[in-house]
Amino acid sequence: MSEPASDTRSTRERILDAAMNIFSAKGFHDTKLDEIVAEGGISKGSIYFHFPNKEKLFIALVDQFADLIERRAKEAIAQETQGIRRVQVALEAVLETFGKYRRPAKLLLVQAVGLGTVFERKRMEVNDRFAQLIKIYLDEAVADGSIAPVDTAIVAHAWMGAIHSVVIQWVYTGEPSKEEIMDALLPLLLKSVGYQPLGAQPAKRSQECRAHAK
């Protein structure tokens, strides 16, 4: 007999919360389902009811975090109308989310690497998902004349590569800071498609001007 919908949702969330805690602390390979059972105060049968194995449970965590990132990005985008500005706020929202949820971010970006073909396919699927989101708003920026025509599919995947490389170091080591990443990475990405905000000047130069004014 299946669980009532409300109970099913509650139990699934408890399983995912417990799994996040144990996977984050011990890593995928060293985590045992019995540890997740003890952490969540649930039965092993409940885990198998929702997830047939440990791999499916881990992938559900990846999907959960990817959904969160996409939701935050779309919420930020909804506040803007200009194509290139929508790209900018989406990147800012993604970094904000990674910073706020570093444990699941580390699980997604660090521990999922090298776990085999199933996890690599999932990682590629998530990467493609966000590259497609970037492409949509790059296409808007081309259409409204904010940037010159470019191959937005290639640019979107190149941006994802740059974002992944910088963010994975940040999530793993805590360096550089989110603010430093935004100050350096965002202008670099925007410049790569020929966009330069009016009146913009490099952060270092701006700081020097303020210091001189004092």
Index terms:
214 residues, mainly alpha
How is the topology of this model organized?
Elements: H1 5-26, H2 33-40, H3 44-50, H4 54-77, H5 83-100, H6 102-111, H7 117-143, H8 152-173, H9 178-192, H10 203-213
Q: What does this 3D model show about the protein?
A:
The protein has 214 residues and is mainly alpha-helical. 77% of the residues lie in helices and 0% in strands. The protein has ten helices and no strands. Helix 5 packs antiparallel against helix 7, helix 6 packs across helix 8 and helix 7 packs across helix 8 (152-173).
Short description:
The chain is built from ten helices and no strands.
Number of beta-strand segments: 0
* Most strands sheet: none
Mean pLDDT equals: 81
**DSSP helix count?**
10
Helix content: over 70%
Low-confidence stretches at least 5 residues in length (pLDDT < 50)? Answer: 199-214
Report the sheet-strand fraction.
under 5%
Shape: elongated
Oligomeric composition of the shown chains:
single chain
